[in-house]
Structure formats: structure tokens, C-alpha cells
Design a protein that fits this description.
The chain has one domain. The radius of gyration is 12 Å and the shape is globular. It is built from 4 helices and no strands. The chain is mostly helical. The chain is about 50% helix and about 0% strand.
Amino acid sequence: MAEQLGTSKGYLHDLCNDPNRRPSIELAKKIELATGGKVTALGLLGLESPKKIEAA
């Protein structure tokens, strides 16, 4: 996936594991497209409030 996004595996790993890391707007949009919207650009950029998880 990192190659598809035009970034390194290490940087993608850091984004996934460090809540203080934020990608560029461009990379956040690419990640949103690559995940079919399961990961949103706004969420990655810290601009979206966490969604409540509904009980099953």
C-alpha cells in the first residue's frame, strides 16, 4: 500500500502507530481513496470527531 500511496512503509507505519503524526492533506486524501473511505482524510488530519461505536 505504501508504494501505491507514493510513500515509504516506515512513514505509513508511523502514521498508523503514532497518534501525534499527521500526513499531508494530499496523502490523507490518497489514503481515504485507497481504503474506500474506511479511513477518512479528516480523521487522519485530526479534524473529525471519533465516531461512537454502537452496541451490536
